[in-house]
Protein: DUF3515 domain-containing protein
Amino acid sequence: MTQQESTSALSRPLLAAVGLAVVLAIGVAGLGLWLGTGNQSEDVPGRTGPLALVSIDAPAAASPECASLVEKLPVGLPSGKDMLSRRELASPAPPATVAWGDAKHDPVVLRCGLPRPSELSATSQLRVISDVQWLELPGSDSSTWVIVDRGVYVALTVPADAGTGPLQDVSTTVRDLLAKQPVKTTA
Structure:
């Protein structure tokens, strides 16, 4: 047996095994997609159905400003390239609270009527969006942004991957609806 004959004799079974593995992998992937198991990330528990939120201290949640804001907020908010629709809240829902989200995205949550954030000081770095001043309270997977220049404090919790769309749309609504006031850096 020559060197060439032994190499090709070894290569044929090896090529057949590799080819069979590739065909089998493609078949399993195709079957998974056909059965609908290829998009399990869309069905993450807690991303569908009513959203359960804990109540937090919101002394001005029953204010006319919060009632007006909740009524006028957009029905959809941009999140990256997608649009999030309003999400139903589980009972008992916290007052003056709205959420947006879907099966693919963590929710964006707005709460109105909160107390002045203790992090707000004369040296706080504020971001101005559409003439509304926000204080960022960063978290690990999301940030909570608090509006600090209106008659009520409004917090918007935004997942890290949502981009700035939610802040921009809520800022426009707040700017057009709630009167601007000086930022109170002391209690």
About this structure: Residues 3-35 form the longest helix (33 residues). Confidence is low (pLDDT under 50) at residues 5-43.
